[in-house]
Amino acid sequence: MLGYVIRRILLAVFVLWGVSTVVFIIVRLVPADPALLIAGDTATADQLAALRNQMGLDRPPLVQYGSFLGGVVTGDFGSSYTQSVPAMQLVAQALPNTALLAFLAVLGALVVSFPLGVVAAVRVNRPIDRIVTTGSLIVQALPSFWIGVVLLLIFSRTLKWLPSADLTSAQSLILPTTVLALPLIALLTRLIRSGLIEVNGEGYINTARAKGMREPAILFTHAIRNALIPIITVVGLAFGTLLGGAVVTETVFSFPGIGKLLVSSIHVRDYSVVQACVIVIAAAFVLINLLVDLLYAYLDPRVRLAK
Amino acid sequence: MTEVSLLKVQNLRVSYPIHSSILQRRIGENMAVKDVNFTISAGQTVGLVGESGSGKSTVARTIIGLEKADGGRIEFEGRDITQSTRTELKALRRDMQMVFQDPFASLNPRLSVQEIIVEPWLAHPDVVPKNRRASEAKALMDRVGLNPDYASRFPHQFSGGQRQRIGIARALALQPKLIICDEAVSALDVSVQAQVLNLLDDLKQEFNLAYLFISHDLSVIEHICDRVLVLNGGVVVEEGTPRELFENPQDDYTKRLFAAVPVIRPWLNGASSKPAGTIPRY
Amino acid sequence: MTTAPTTSAAPAMTKARRSRWGVHTRTLVPCAIIALIAVGAIFVPVLYGYDPLRVDLADRLKPPGSVLPNGSIAVFGTDQIGSDLFAQMMAGARVSLIIGAATLAIAGVIGVLIGMLAGYYGGWLDTVLMRVADIQLAFPAILLAVLLAAVLGQGVLNVIIVLSISNWVVFARIARSQVLALKDREYVEAARTLGLGNFHIIFRTLLPGSLPPILVVGTVELGHVVLAEAALSFLGVGVPMGTASLGSTIANGVQYLSTAWWISTLPGVLLLLLVLATGVLGDAVRDRLDPRLRSL
Amino acid sequence: MTEQLVADSRRAQSPLLSVRDLQVEFTTSAGIARALDGVSFDVQAGETLAILGESGSGKSVTSQAIMALLPKPAGSIVGGSILYDGIDLAKEPVSRVRDLCATDIAMIFQDPLSSLNPVFRIGDQVAEPFRRRLGMGKKEALARALELLKRVGIADAERRISNYPHQFSGGQRQRIMIAMAIALKPRILIADEPTTALDVTVQAQIMRLLAELQAETGMAMILISHDLGVVADSASRVAIMYAGRIIETGGIREVYDHPQHPYTKGLLDSIPGAHAMGEPLRPIVGSPPNLLDLPAGCAFHPRCPIAVPECRAAVPSLREPEGAALGHHVACIRAEEVRSHD
Description:
The complex is a heterotetramer. By secondary structure, chain C is mostly helical. Chain C has a two-stranded antiparallel ribbon with strand order 1-2. By secondary structure, chain D is of the alpha/beta class. Chain D has a seven-stranded mixed sheet, with helices on both faces. In chain D, strands 2-1-4-5 form a four-stranded antiparallel sheet, covered by helices on one side. In chain D, strand 1 and strand 2 form a beta hairpin. Chains in contact: A-B, A-C, A-D, B-C, B-D, C-D. Chains A and C meet through helix 1, helix 6, helix 7, helix 8 and helix 10 of A and helix 1, helix 4, helix 5, helix 8 and helix 9 of C. Chain D: It holds the Pfam family oligo_HPY. Chain D: Keywords: ATP-binding, Cell membrane, Membrane, Nucleotide-binding, Transport.
């Protein structure tokens, strides 16, 4: 187990390094000259050179890379040229909002999908199962930005029930959370259903039956635990989709989270903020998956007790 | 045993590496085969028996080239094949073939029976010229007791015993001198197993084949082998003719192994005079 | 050996039989929908003489079914610059399908090739592939696409490149896992003992065996790629101005949500239909080719 | 002779379990397979009945039908009865049959690894019947589980009770399964291929353990196997199955020494090592039939060396052939023609 934990942590560190490096390379590929963007078209060659020197753009790439990595470690991604504050400060303001949104979405998705998946599995191939599976298939195909727009149209513009923007009240969280949770609900429902069906064919379920246990007791002791362990990993990976989905959802609802910050920064080519956003989102994702992997290992004795 | 041996295995050692859990570095090894020596002469059947983990399948897989030996020599007709290059090995494959355990997994489900039997000739095109391959494949099917009219059927349309016959036909396609049977009849029902054992016996006479026969089933080994090696923990603990081993085992492990073999009619041979329904002998 | 094969196979087989008709329908209907959209995408913009850059302010924001001054009927209405929404949606579907097909071809071929080689040979190639995949998985797919698109700039080719880069790993992983699962099968080992070369084993033995799940993934990925393109265009980092895209049409309509609901809603329905068709098709293909892949 | 008398007096009592004309069908994509077709047998208290057969013969389906473990919805009992203690298990709802499981009828399976839940400690799994069925507290149930684990020969049971299934060897796992099965002192233990997945030396130990436990508790056993040798020591009676029917049944010595059905005789002749070395085996020709497409009449006739045209006419029912011992029944119209070869 200890070896497994150490390996996972090393891997997470490696992935973070890889992510940072990829971001560094991609951002350096930008055709536009950041100095030119900041100084504007009217700047003289001298002003540009001075700015380049100040931003470290005239140094050799390797040196830039080194100070960039140093910045990643200390959380210093330079200043936003549009708002003249450290990029990290903007990210730090936006991050809690997104975290709240993501947390509510995952919680909501679990609460909704769990009973749906269990019911579908218990009544497999019956009408209720067909409704649940078809429903989740449709929900999975919904473009999240579009469903956001449609919900906005129905609840905010037409019915005027819910506010559309800002983080002014708890109500304003309802629509973005719903949009974010929908694909996750569909995915988890399908996974819980198929996981339970698969586990149902295992030998130990028959053993439990031969021990005289009733089906509900078997479902809630023997089946669920075995079916859920692999699903935990998927939930971790789904966080990636969720954080990605936040980029779109926050834009639709003008929700002041890290996704909206990212998109608006891309539009104004504020690359220090873009870098900070991407790396922070990736780091959050890596961290969550690390925790999920450890939880997985803890729950499955075959991994926990492996030498 | 004065004739030149077909296969000679000397001090064979095979291990699987153990990797550290952190950086996946190789930190040790698990010895599957520690020290195995034996020879097979042309036309002879040698049996390897042992329980799971004894290393018997590893020996077979190393000889055929599916695993790498860590030490020792494997000589085929006097040539050391552990040091062979790829092209030399390819030539050797013609003389040495294998019949696998699982008749459901050992045939490519996407190929027809004829394609399966012809496949060896794609690797060794000189064995049978292209225009005669279809008819030769059918002749082989006929030889192993399959209806040649079924040449275009797929493996899933056959029963376990029939599939094992297809596997035998594929092994025969290259006219080998040695066939390694790795638990080749273990997955078959008794009545079908007997058919396949008889087929293997007939083919041996007809083509002067030698067999290396790997099995956990001592009665099968006793039936088909000229010599038997008992493997335990990667080492040969005893060797002899089946009669010697069954009637007078010397090694402790061999004694235990043979004593545990179920007897069909325990009430007949006096070893057990207990009435049925009580504690079985050990 | 112990239980009759009937007992273990029977439940799956009953299910298969019960849903055989279903599988048939579930294959045909989505295929028909995709084909219909494809035909529409090819011909409708031509028939309507659709020009994304033409502005016709007199025809702005006409609701669905309006008769335009030139006598034609705008079945789905017109948008904020007066162009026919139906023609625009079909032109957008054309872009979606072109980008989807091209991305699948590029990402599929490269991913499958690398995945199979990595799975077969193992060693450093496999280690590198798996680490690259780990890093790439740490970027939520849309994030990587947004970042790349922002750097590369807008353009259909750029979107294809961006989506290929963010999708090849999916194919590489499934191909690799298939090869790993098949590599130790006895029939593959049998091919090795026959003296068949690596090329033959990889492309003649392993590839056909690996195809079913790859096809399933490919079908489902088509939907994902179409969605991703629309999302990129919606965010304004996808196809450039002047190229129709369902995503940018939806984005353009957001401002007019209270006055002209159809601009944003209708293209979304088309998008949903297209993605749903690929999802259903993927499920049907999976059931048909290999019921064991259910949980994928 | 005394043995025979004891057996006879037992038979006079009403049997513990009585299966009558049991019919089970499986719905497959290719059609309906009759997995069991008129299976009848009795199990007396304290005896061991071996049910033998090759793949597809229906031997495991029989045990699944008794325990209400037939895979749903494909498999179902379509006729006959399974009488236990005055109740017809074939007609009772599944939940009622489950109530009898473990307390009256218990079962162990072929693969002890997949039969144990990988995520629970073995102590908890063995204690489960005590907690769920007898409502014992955790501590008490675990204490009982420990006793059982010691009894089935798990060394160092005090420590190992909190280990997980993957930490045990195959033979130990089967011992744990046995401990779980005998926890509530069942009157019948069904063992479905209990040693098939095990090495031969371990197999001998498990068979010995089962026989010891039977002697201690007086429970009846149904041993299901494809291996005629494994059951020879412990079973008193055998039933040989072919294509969903019992084709021969009787005392084990009687059936093995004087087989009266050509299939039984063929099976015995097919076993290597059962006769002189070097002699070719005398296998049964052909393959077992497809349950979806059974031959008319006796299902064995296409493979039978002594088949006559009448064999095709009707399915032969079990009968006591002339000269056979009491209780030796054979489903063959030419049973008298089959000569034993001992």
